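Can you give me the bound-state structure? Components:
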Amino acid sequence: MPITIAPGRRPRREAGTAWLFISPAVLIILGLSIVPVVWSLLLSFQANDLVTPSRWVGLDNYNALVQDPKFGQAVRNTLVYTALYVPLSIVLGLALALVLNQRIRLVGLYRTLMFVPFVVSATAQGVLFSFILDPEFGAANSLLHRIGLSSQGFLTDPGQALLVLVGITLWSGTGFCVVVYLAALQEVPPSLVEAARLDGAGRWQVLRHVVLPALRPITVFLLLWQVIQSLQVFDLVYVTTKGGPLGSTTVIVYFVWEQAFKTFTAGYGAAAAYVLAAALLIIALAVRIVRRQGVAR
Amino acid sequence: MTMTAKVERPPSRPAPPDSPRRSARRLPFSPWHLLLVPLALLFAIPLIWLLISSVMTNAEINRFPPPLWPKGIDLGGYAYVFGHSMFPRWFANSLIVSVVAVAANLLFGVLAGYAFARLRFFGSRVLLVLMLVTMAIPFQLTMIPTFIVMRQLGLIDTLGALIVPSLVTPFAVFLMRQFFLSLPRELEEAAWIDGCSTFGVLFRIVLPLSKPALATVAVLTFLTTWNDLTWPLIAINHDTQYTLPLGLTTFQGLHRTNWAAVMAGNVVTVVPVLIAFLGAQKTFIQSVTASGLKA
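Here's the bound-state model for the whole set.
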């Protein structure tokens, strides 16, 4: 242990300085998160149009949510989107990271190219892809036409739109997984891999029994992170489809936004937001439990 | 970093000879490139297409099927964006909001992070845990009350509404705290004995050692503020106060047939982030992975 000189040497001055240092952060962070969270809960029991005084309605908003087919559709769309995007991005990310982790040339260039889309805003992605995938003027259909395939509706086709959104997010989000896995692969002790090889383990066995277990904490982190991201997807939907066609891409956050700021039923929107938050909480707790078990093993 | 990596390499040398694939010897390059080149192109082509289409004429774009390569470089889209739209204004707004957010996050993150890492005061534990909890709160849970608060403060429809909520994030506080905890205490203690104030210790001794953490906070703050659409969409109605993402999506809605201008505007929105990324790529990638590896 390093020498600590007289802890509590000048406690009063130190506490004063400390409060001076933390007060801006505490005021802004707690004021704009803890307070609104409680406020939101109260709102969810009220009828509120953001203009006239609100009215207490008890659980009416939640009851209405359960019966609202639009909300049901939003939940379904969000789950489908998440169930497709998260595993695909993680598996693709891992595969690409494993390939890039070998000693081949231009690894830096490949990594850069795969990661660049991640820094592009969802807005810019949305505008770009609604152009590329435009049924009439888009390059995608032009390409299909050239190789003799029929034109597609893409974002204007209720059967395809959600899948296309998953594809766009894979384009921009896979690079993040690649980069995180690549960094984690650097931390896998080479001695472990060597030892397994000396014991006669083949490529697959090393991967299966040495590398993947070592990557487990990172995989859990990525899983949690990607799930949270995709349950909250909004910007891309707003820019490309505005929830359409026929509600096929209305996700939960889009539903919340629409209720609160378009139809001005803020209490109803707050209730929907709380349902999503409860789902996130359950997932976070589940991951914690899985993680604990992993440590215990 | 790279130096040490190179020094460490020789002991683990015997890796390559064990790969039995002969094809590696026949080709002048690793066969993996046959997979990686098309994949890398898949990631790159949309952005290349963005650049190409921004210098096409609308006549070219509106032909069916549209050409995949322009006849020449036409700057009409850019001329329209800079001459007949509010993009310059939106660019300035985005810049103001991002720069203020970065500066404020650095200042408040450093101050609070240092207090949590080094100073003893009543309630520090509780406040730290509360801050940790707020990191997990999804934005849609707070957005409606935040809107009401900003309206009460009279900030709705001003850049202030965009700046105030992003002045400091719990992430910045935590990142700085973790970094300060990793620094050896002895230097600070020596300065204290020499009669340096806490401010003096922080700004003269600690901060010069904290460049990697400061860079991480700056990069991630810039990226999230510059790219955000959700909150500006809620807080801003008047187009003089738009930031670039909000301006771009509105502009797209109003100019459905002027694709060249829309793509030029898109380039204007994306290029600052791309320049920042390519200029400080190492910091970017380290920042993004740091948030994951330390979790």
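A couple of observations. Chain A has one domain: 61-296. The first strand of chain A starts at residue 46 and ends at 47.
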